[in-house]
Amino acid sequence: MSxxxxxxxxxxxxxxxxxxxxxxxxxxxxxxxxxVLLFLVSRIGHVRVWEWLAIPAAALLFNWGEYSVHRxxxxxxxxxxxxxxxxxxxxxxxxxxxxxxxxxxSRDWRVIFFPAWLxxxxxxxxxxxxxxxxxxxxxxxxxxxxxxxxxxxxxxxVFHSCEHLPSGHWLARLxxxxxxxxxxxxxxxxxxxxTRNFNLVVPLMDWLFGTLYWEPIAPEQRSPRVALGR
Length: 230
What we know:
Elements: H1 5-15, H2 22-42, H3 54-73, H4 82-95, H5 116-135, H6 139-162, H7 175-187, H8 204-208, H9 224-228
């Protein structure tokens, strides 16, 4: 079945509240996340060598969580994740397809960013309870794990935004972002979105679970500056 992306964009934009401000949306997420990070970092004392291992361990946990939630709840209907499914498959994948990836106006950020309240929920129900629990055993490990989980959330939001930038933007030309933009573009191919490329920052779990899919970047998808650099 064909999908009219332009018609959906028109309907979606018409339903956005006139009071919506994309800069406030993104700014709140960034500032709230940074405030939580600063609090957590302030709880770190003299770190022993082995305690630094908490960072890669938490980064692996976040990478697995990002992959699992995206794959299971973003693209398959479950009662528990019905709202996420509607917002992700219903809205995000209808607004952006493989041939129409860049946003066109700041109000389009509403369909790229998670809802602003989600980072509050993520920290209040996930990160801070984990911090408290681990801190009963080791304060430094607790703060390092929790801060890595918050940093992972913010990094996800930044990378996802970059993956929907116009191809000529300077951030889109950075090597790793350019690579992840192509993986995400392929994920937005409608016949691939339920099965391939669920990681948005580092495709580790896609590689481990056999869901990584790559095609070379087509010449028409490159900015002139990138094409000349090859």
